Write the structure tokens for this entry.
Amino acid sequence: MQDAEQLLNDGFLKVFTQIDNFKNTGSFEGWMRRIVVNTCLDYLRSTSLKEEMAMHVRAIPAEESDLSVTNVGLDNIEFKELVLMIQTLPAMTRTVFNLFVFDGFNHKEIGAQLDISEGTSHWHLHQARNLLQKKILKSDKNNNITYEARRI
């Protein structure tokens, strides 16, 4: 949480120090959002964070099977709960997931922004989906909600 606050502050500092560079060709909000997103991406590209993530990825055990949870499961989860589940993902996996799902970037664009290969971007998205599916199923067992799961 402290990292997020620090990155937001850094982003706003860049916005205020570079406000002279705003050309009025698009929306101010879009320009400002781009600066904040790029600030966060720069942080993720840092070498110390990459090393930390690489150690975490090696520690994750191989997945036994792929499960897919239908939308019935997502209908029973509150938005806040889903956001909390996404926030618990490893940093790089969460970043790739957010860029792909929420920001609409493709794997080639994600790879270029994060300085990773397209294949690595695909892997992180796959990993995020698997981890979220497991969390949803675990939540299902704890809340006794019926989800429909199927092999893919």
Remarks:
- The radius of gyration is 18 Å.
